[in-house]
């Protein structure tokens, strides 16, 4: 049976790795509520996602917060207060050269969009690139 390319095991990670190696950066979108912010007051801290965003920032990745939250000043202040790096809120991470309503990102960290797989793939990428840099690769 023929399988779609990006339904194969590890294909999303391999694409992220190849894009990072080609461009030296990725544009990573991340959701606000339920991904880095406890909107529903469940007691969640999202520390693992916050650490991942800090690690991606160290690798020169562009980080764009995407949110439907009504108060963008609150979002901005929350990100700063919690030391979550970001290059913009609800804005494009790169210039496409044409108009598009679709936000551009290489990966999206979102509690409603397979957060565990994207988190695992990006964590693996951070670890691989960091090890390669230490080894001079």
Strand content bin: 5-15%
Arrangement of strands in the largest sheet: 3-2-1-4
Question: What does the radius of gyration come to?
Answer: 15 Å
The largest β sheet comes out as: 4 strands, parallel
Helix content: 40-55%
Low-confidence stretches: none
Question: What letter string, H or E per element, gives the SSE order?
Answer: HEHEHEEH
Termini separation comes to 37 Å
Basic shape: globular
| Count of helix runs | 4
Structural classification? alpha/beta
Q: How many beta-strand segments?
A: 4
Overall pLDDT metric: 93
Describe this structure in words.
It is built from 4 helices and 4 strands, in the order H-E-H-E-H-E-E-H. By secondary structure, it is α/β, with parallel strands linked by helices. Helix 2 (47-58) packs parallel to helix 4. The longest helix has 21 residues, at 115-135. The radius of gyration is 15 Å and the shape is globular.
Task: Spell out the key features of this protein.
41% helix; four-stranded parallel β-sheet; 137 residues; 4 helices; alpha/beta; 4 strands
Brief account:
The protein has about 140 residues and is of the alpha/beta class.
Topology (SSEs and partners):
Blueprint: H1 11-23, E1 27-31, H2 47-58, E2 62-66, H3 72-81, E3 88-89, E4 107-109, H4 115-135
Parallel strand pairs: 1-2, 1-4, 2-3
Helix pairs in contact: 1-4, 2-4
């Amino acid at each position: 049976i023929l399988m779609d390319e990006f339904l194969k095991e590890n294909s999303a990670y391999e694409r992220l790795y190849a894009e990072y190696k080609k461009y030296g950066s990725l544009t990573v979108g991340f959701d606000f509520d339920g991904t880095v912010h406890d909107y529903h007051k469940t007691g969640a801290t999202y520390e693992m996602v916050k650490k991942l965003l800090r690690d991606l920032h160290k690798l020169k990745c562009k980080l764009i917060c995407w949110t439907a939250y009504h108060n963008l000043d609150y979002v901005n202040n929350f990100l700063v207060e919690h030391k979550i790096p970001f290059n913009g809120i609800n804005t494009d991470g790169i210039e496409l050269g044409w108009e598009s309503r679709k936000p551009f990102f290489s990966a999206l960290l979102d509690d409603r969009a397979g957060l565990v797989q994207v988190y695992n793939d990006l964590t693996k990428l951070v670890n691989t690139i960091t090890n390669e840099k230490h080894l001079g690769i």
